[in-house]
Amino acid sequence: MTTPPPQLPFSDKYDLAHARAYEEKHHTGLRRRLTTWREIQLARRALRLAGNPESVLDMPCGAGRFWPMLAEQPKRRLLAGDRSPAMLEIARGAADPALLARVESLLPLDAFALDLPDQAVEHVLCMRLLHHIASPADRARILGELHRVARSGVTVSLWVDGNLQARRRQQLDARRKRTDVNRLVVPRAIIEAEFAQAGFRIRRHLDVLPGLSMWRLYLLDKV
Description:
By secondary structure, the protein is an alpha/beta fold.
């Protein structure tokens, strides 16, 4: 019997108001705009290093902020999904109609149990999800699903240690003494071992701001 996907508190908060605020926040403030620009730049670079895959699943797609970059390749098949129906609604409404027409499939998808066939796409872009997942077993399940639906590889982003921002975040979490943290820094040694256990080989890592930012992208090849 298949184990039901876990219910994570952070994913339940995305009603229409939260989803709209999430879409808007990436366009407000110089720091957030620069971070968004840099994330898109690095995701584009990762896909180039992956050989500009002909089909990509954007999962979770959020409000679709990576779609313009993904659609730069005119022949690329673009699929997208998110666990939140509200986020999918915001993504549909925010996208230019011509861009939305490029999204071949926009589905309610759960990263723990992707309703897609094996090797459905050449590559999966998985941005800003794994830093929400505290349980190693839950991360393993997500990585297993990404491995299953991708033919060649995956690009993921998350918070890692070994930088100034992560040290400050860890100190803050220690002072708060919280047990319900829904965003966390994952030690590089741990997540990189988990990639290997899931059947991936690291081709490259790309830091948003080396030595400063805790955001890191990993380009992973299926072994």
